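Narrative of accomplishments. A recurring question from our advisory board has been how the design workflow behaves on a single, concrete structure rather than in aggregate. To address it, we present the structure tokens for one chain from the evaluation set, followed by the sequence designed for it. No filtering or post-editing was applied between the two.
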């Protein structure tokens, strides 16, 4: 493989965690789920606007990367 065959790509990775998740769920489960859903919608829209993709969704954690 020659140097001209190489393709480089800059990648940014987003990893997010819900601070105080257990405490928030114990205090008000519905409000916590609604807040998490709203945050996920913001993340998803920003990732899509920047032509990215969600690469992992495990439990309450999310990871994303531009394409």
């Amino acid at each position: 493989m020659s140097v001209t065959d190489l393709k480089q790509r800059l990648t940014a990775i987003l990893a997010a965690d819900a601070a105080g998740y257990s405490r928030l769920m114990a205090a008000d489960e519905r409000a916590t789920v609604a807040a998490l859903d709203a945050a996920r919608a913001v993340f998803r829209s920003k990732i899509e606007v920047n032509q990215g993709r969600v690469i992992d969704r495990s439990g309450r954690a999310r990871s994303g990367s531009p394409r």
